[in-house]
Design brief:
With 171 residues, the chain is of the alpha+beta class. 27% of the residues lie in helices and 25% in strands.
Length: 171
């Protein structure tokens, strides 16, 4: 009994001891630090995209000023998609490492208004380079895809995506 009492008393004494406040180190983060980090991340993503393309020697990709890579591998003969047009598409989305993310079902077509919808900026840019009936492969860097947050489901943050897209109809 004496031992239990001594353990209990010791527990009380040690649990009531006042803790010293934790000193937080001073962080001197500047706008330049953020700029440098963003540049470093973008440079690494560009290297990752280039390594991916090095394995796809038959893809004849072009790069836009924004960093979107596209290759129209099957040309249609319909009208060009313009801002405000309604685009009817099917697609397959994966990551650079080949991980499957999303696709439209075989009998399904997605529809969206170009430049006026929640569809990835890179897809919107690519659609305006396409004509009705075109099929294209896209590599969309993260800043034109899902950015810093990913899509909160299958696409991680800061991740480039590969899209195979077919523009069925432009209205």
């Amino acid at each position: 009994m004496k031992l239990v009492f001594m353990l209990f008393a010791g527990l009380i004494l040690f649990s009531c001891k006042e803790d010293k406040p934790i000193e937080k180190p001073e962080i001197n983060w500047t706008k330049d630090n953020s700029t440098d980090l963003n540049k470093e991340l973008a440079d690494q993503e560009k290297i990752d995209i280039q390594l991916y393309l090095d394995r796809k020697t038959n893809w004849k990709m072009k790069e836009t000023g924004s960093g979107l890579y596209y290759w129209i591998y099957s040309e249609g003969n319909g009208p060009q998609a313009l801002s405000g047009s309604i685009a009817q598409v099917s697609f397959n989305i994966s990551l650079l490492d080949g991980t499957f993310c999303y696709k439209t079902e075989d009998d399904e077509i997605e529809e969206f208004r170009v430049d006026k919808s929640q569809v990835e900026t890179g897809v919107q840019e690519a659609i305006k380079l396409m004509k009705e009936g075109d099929k294209a492969k896209l590599i969309i860097p993260s800043h034109l895809a899902h950015g810093l947050t990913g899509d909160m489901n299958k696409i991680p943050p800061l991740t480039a995506i590969v899209v195979d897209i077919h523009l069925y109809k432009v209205k």
